[in-house]
Amino acid sequence: MKLRTYIVEDNATIRENLIGTLEELADVEAIGTAETENDGKAWLTANPGEWDLAIVDLFLRQGSGLGVLEACRHRHQAQKMVVLSNYATPDVRMRCAQLGVDAVFDKSNEIDALVDYCIQHGQGDRQSA
Q1: CA 83 to chain centre
Q2: Structural domain count of the chain
Q3: Which of 8, 66, 100, 109 has the greatest number of CB atoms lying within 10 Å of its CB?
Q4: Above 50 in pLDDT, residue 129?
């Protein structure tokens, strides 16, 4: 079973490259994308049983990824929220942890770690299913 992943990222190039990489290497199925805080919040909260993983950028065309993370704080325990940002500073990582984020990855040098995370999370779901 593929890891149903929703991506909130406003840069089309990054979004398409990320989807291609994750679908090829990590058995991920990109089930939807959003470019703004409102679109991301709306879809994720309206479709609570439709996703396993949300990958959220913090700086969006409208709003902030922090608002998306806040809206999903009370998600099902098996659903994972990760941040992929160019601004993965200690302060940002702490704020994300306060919002219940499962992991934070730096766009510039932690894509491999994100791929590994997706692989591990997908296998964990299958083992417990």
Answers
A1: 6
A2: 1
A3: 8
A4: no
Does the global pTM surpass 0.85? yes
- Residues 30-56: pLDDT tens digits? 999 999 999 999 999 999 999 999 999
Q: How far apart are the first and last CA of the chain?
A: 10
Determine the Cα–Cα distance for residues 45 and 65; give it in Å rounded to an integer.
14
Q: What is the mean pLDDT of the chain?
A: 94
Residue 105 predicted with pLDDT over 80: yes
User: What residue numbers bound the domain in which 109 lies?
Assistant: 3-128
Question: CATH code at 56?
Answer: 3.40.50.2300
Distance CA 60, CA 100 (A): 20
For the segment 2-20, the average pLDDT, to the nearest whole number, is 97
**DSSP notation for the chain:** --EEEEEE-S-HHHHHHHHHHHHHHS-EEEEEEESBHHHHHHHHHH-TTS-SEEEE-SB-SBSBHHHHHHHTTT--TT-EEEEEES---HHHHHHHHHTT-SEEEETTT-HHHHHHHHHHHHHHHHHH-
